[in-house]
Each structure stands twice: as structure tokens, then as C-alpha cells.
Amino acid sequence: MPSTSSLGKLALAATGGALAARGLQRLPQARFAGMSGTSIAAPGAAGWVTDFLNAAYFRRDADQRSTADLRLAFGILTTRWHRAGARRLRAADVAPFHKAFGRDRFVDDADSPRGTLNTRQLREGAARLLGDWFLGAWDDPTRRAYGIAFPEVADREAYLPELRLDHAKLGGITPPQSPAAEQTWHTYPPVLLGDEAAAGRALELLTQPQTWPDYGSSLGRFTPVRSGGLDGQTFEIEVLGEPVGPIPVLLRAYVTVTELLTAGDALDGYTARLNETFARYAPFDPDPLPEGAAPAALIELTTHAGHFLGRARNRLLVFTADGQAWVRAVGNWDPLDWHLDRLYAGMGRYCQHAFWGMGQAHESVLHQLADAVRSDLGGRR
Known about the structure:
InterPro entries: Peptidase_S8_Ser-AS. By secondary structure, this protein is an alpha+beta fold.
């Protein structure tokens, strides 16, 4: 039988090991690794979840891809999560998905090569999986919110977005803290929204955080995880990378709105200081607010621990100039830790730039927002 002294040493060792494990979990590398996948799916479901998204979008030929289909696929997954009592999707949940979509995955014709799902197949499969009510609800903006279709408006109003936080691993907020001269400062190209009236409509949409999943791109989407409006809202960002192997890479991160300004002295002062900062620390980047432009709104987003850009801040700036309305992203971040620097150099730089408008329209949430604005103002999405 072990002596009291031996038991004491074992207890101390166990305590030390537990504390060491907890310490390791606090390391940036460990926290980042814990941000793989999405909060609505358990690790055991990651394979079939990403394969489903792959079939709906990434595996399809480029000329057959539709960001609306990718948003629909996400909506099917998220609605299934909600209808299952907001428990995380599991490995076993692949069975009802296979029953609803599996036969179509084996079809091999011109508009649906084997292993893919086209728009019709996604919609028909969703009705089989979730019920005939789903399609009408998904197409109805009053019953679609938070990336979920709700049977009735009352169901949408009763929904608690905080349910996603149960498995979010939400860390503390992490604004940049290095000296400004050591940070990276970057202005992304502006995206045209339309005429000056489009600025107001864009702001109306953006201040309804439950609609943000509707602007998801092929690289990712924002989903609010708190009740209430935009000011102080926290978003889960689900980021999709083009597949290197058979399935795309799915990561998540979190940001919170730490400043929300609309036209007025406070916004004028903020944008003036921002321009001055860029003139000093990023003189080769364009001014965030172009000369002669009028700011209409600014949304400041600050990262949480585990974000793939480290300690960072981004701003969505809506402005008007020469009779047109524009939106652009303006970011700054601390020097990246080695593990994030390698990721950023390998794929993050392109994805970050494309996500905020420097790539193709299907990759950019700002282009998707612009499409929604034009659609609401009478154009075609």
C-alpha cells in the first residue's frame, strides 16, 4: 500500500499535471487549434459536414457554383441543429442526411456530376430532411434569420442566438496592443453598393445582425451569437478554405462590435484620425476615407482570443462619393505569432484579402452585401 508521503507526492504531481494542461490550453496555439470546425457540429461530425458543403459548392465546376447554394447548405445544417434542440450535430446525424441527399449524390449528369448537389437537389433533399415547410420559410425573409429557417415568425422571435455559445469556446476580447509602428495597417479596395441611396439601405441591412448570414461568401459567413442589435454584437465567423484534399478546411473565430457610428461629429472625428494614422504608418495604402468622400457609417470589429489573425481590429466603412455609395474594410493587427504567421503566409493572406473584396465577387462578403442591397433596391441578385 502506498505511504501517505507517496500519495501526497502523487496528488501534487496530478495537480501539477492538471495545472500544466490548463496552462497549455491557454497557449495561443492550443486555443487556435480548438477553433477548428463550427460550434454547431461536434468533431465527430466534421467529416460529413464539410463533405456536404463540398458537394453543394466546392466539388462543383466553377461555372455551376452558386453562393446562394452554399448559404442554403449552411442553412440546412443550421436548421437541422436548431430543430434537434440546438445540440451539436454528431457523427450519427449523417444517416438522415444520407437518406435525404444520398441518392442524388450518385446521379451523374450534366448539371449534377457524381458527388455533387445542384440547387434542385439541395432544395428537394432539404424538404425530405426537414419537412415541406422548410423551402417556403427559407425563401421568406420574415422566417429566415441567423442562417436558420423557422416554421413561423413567432419561432424566429423566440430564438435565442446565445445557444451557439454553449460550444463556442469564446475567449476574451483581444484588440491590438503592440506599438502602432509595429502593427500591420491595411486598407482594402472599396466595393460599390450603388447610388447614394444604397448607403442607407446597406446600413439598414447591417444593423439587423440576424441577416448577416445572408451575405455569406464562398470563403465564410458571419453569424450573430447574442440577442439584440448590432452595437456590442458578437459574431461567429465560419471560414471555408478551398479543399487541398477531398474536403474544404473549416475554421471559426469570433469578433465583437466595439464601435458603431453613423453620420455625425463622432464619425467624422474617427475617420479623420484613421486617415491620419494610415498616413503615418501605412503611407502606401489608400486613405480609408477618400478625399472628398462623406462617411455614412462605421462598424468596428475586434477579435477574440483564438482568432486566426491574432490581436486585430477591422472596420467596415460605408461612405459616399461622386453620387455613389461604397463599403470597404480597414484593418490593423499585431505581429502574428509564429503559428498564425505560417498560416497567414500559406493561405490566410489571400483569403483575408479576398474575403474583404480584393478577389472575386463570390469570395467577398462585401460583394454579397452589395448584391443584397441592389436586390432590395430593385436590381437583380
